[in-house]
Amino acid sequence: MLEDEGNWKAGFLYITDNQQKIGEKDIEESLMPWETCQPAKPTLIVVDYVATRARFLGKLVHRLAKRAEMTPLLHPVRLLLVERDAEGIWKEDFGKRHDHVVRSFQVTSCHADAPLVLQRLDNDSLWDIIQKMSGAESKDKQHLLEQLASIDPQTRPLFAALVGDAVRRTGSVRRLDQDALLGDVLKHAEEEFWTPAGITDADKVWLCLVTMTGGAFASWLEDPNLASVFFSCEPPAVNDRMLMRRYRVMTGQRPEPYAGVAEFRPLQPDILGEFFVLRFLTDNDNLAWFKQLSLCLNAAWEKRPTYVAE
After folding, report:
1. Number of H helices, E strands in the chain
2. pLDDT per residue over 161-211, tens digit each?
3. Sheet of strand 261-264, all strands in order from the earlier edge strand to the far edge
4. In degrees rounded to 5, what are phi and psi of residue 79?
5. CB count, 10 Å around CB of 211?
6. Which one-letter DSSP state was computed for residue 287?
7. Cα-atom radius of gyration of the chain, to the nearest Å?
8. Is 69 helix (H, G, I), strand (E, B) or coil?
9. Helix or strand or coil: residue 148?
10. How many CB atoms lie within 10 A of CB 86?
């Protein structure tokens, strides 16, 4: 969704299907609207989690750059690609696996010789995040910034937001390390939202699998090879509409239809999603946790080995 920011429109690119993993024909069809669209003013499009859609984005950059030869854009369009690892194997899908024509357009349209590495926010900016997330309940700036630094030495904005949220809910973040803070977020979600919505262990297993693969289609639930993943519970039904509702409670994202089949997206932010997977699949109170972990990991690897490897 784009919003006006002075002389520019700016916003995030929302992609309803996982273009990195679908076929070439589908990618071409999804790119067709970009052939003729015209921005009403200069436009900045921010793309997060580039690794999950690298192949599509590589072709999108090519398609927009090529417009200069076909139907020129009336205003500049800039894509800001955001990814945790600038040199990850996602770059293979983004550029190296395309032909030399596509790659040449990508190179000429790039506005920097190297990725821009984001620097840490200063204390005033981190404090602004804590204040906003706490509902202005945070009072002791120095103490909370010290707590943030002990929880996350990198002082990432995500953890500043989580610290602020913890202050809003509990009034304190004393004695919380990074695992405890993330665990508190999940515990709060479980008690306030998941349990009242009737979230089941099968839903959580499915969320683990979806998060481990960067996205999954409901049709996977009909794959007999995946049945063993739900060895300790009844797997969700592929056409269970209540599953859609429960999944939205867990992730805040509604499964989107693609080619007549619902697509589920992973739990994000990715740090929280990874923590949930590790926490759920290594539950020491569950004696079957090692079997569950092995089955989920094997299933994820079978479905999307490249994503799991990253």
Report:
1. 13, 7
2. 999 999 888 877 777 889 999 999 999 999 999 999 999 999 999 999 999
3. 216-217, 261-264, 256-258
4. -110, 125
5. 25
6. T
7. 21
8. helix
9. helix
10. 13
Residue in the block written with tokens 């639930």: 221
Which stretches of the chain are DSSP H helices? 24-31, 54-66, 90-91, 100-109, 123-134, 141-151, 157-170, 178-189, 201-213, 241-251, 270-281, 289-303, 305-309
Report the C-alpha dihedral over residues 89, 13, 98, 62, rounded to 10 degrees.
Answer: -140
- Residue that has been written with the tokens 């202005």 in this structure: 136
H or E element at residue 44: strand 43-47
Q: What is residue 190's DSSP assignment? A: I
Reference 92, options 63, 55, 60; nearest CA is 55
> How confident is the prediction along the chain (310 residues), in pLDDT tens digits per residue?
555 656 899 888 866 544 444 566 767 777 888 888 898 899 999 988 887 778 888 888 888 888 877 788 899 899 898 888 877 777 777 776 666 767 777 777 787 777 888 888 999 999 999 999 988 767 788 889 999 999 999 999 999 999 999 988 887 777 788 999 999 999 999 999 999 999 999 999 999 999 998 888 888 888 888 888 888 788 888 778 888 889 999 998 776 655 455 778 889 888 999 999 999 988 766 667 788 888 899 999 988 887 777 6
Tokens of 178: 């990074």
Alpha-carbon torsion (120, 123, 128, 130), positive or negative: positive
Greatest alpha-carbon span in the chain: 62
Let me know: does 242 contact 191? Beta carbons within 8 Å.
no
What is the C-alpha separation between 154 and 140, in angstroms, rounded? 20
Tell me how far apart the alpha carbons of residues 72 and 76 are, in angstroms, rounded to a whole number.
10
The Cα–Cα gap between 303 and 186 comes to: 27
Residue type, 1: M
Q: What are the φ/ψ torsions at residue 217 (nearest 5 degrees)?
A: -100, 145
Q: How far is Cα 52 from Cα 250, in angstroms, rounded to an integer?
A: 20
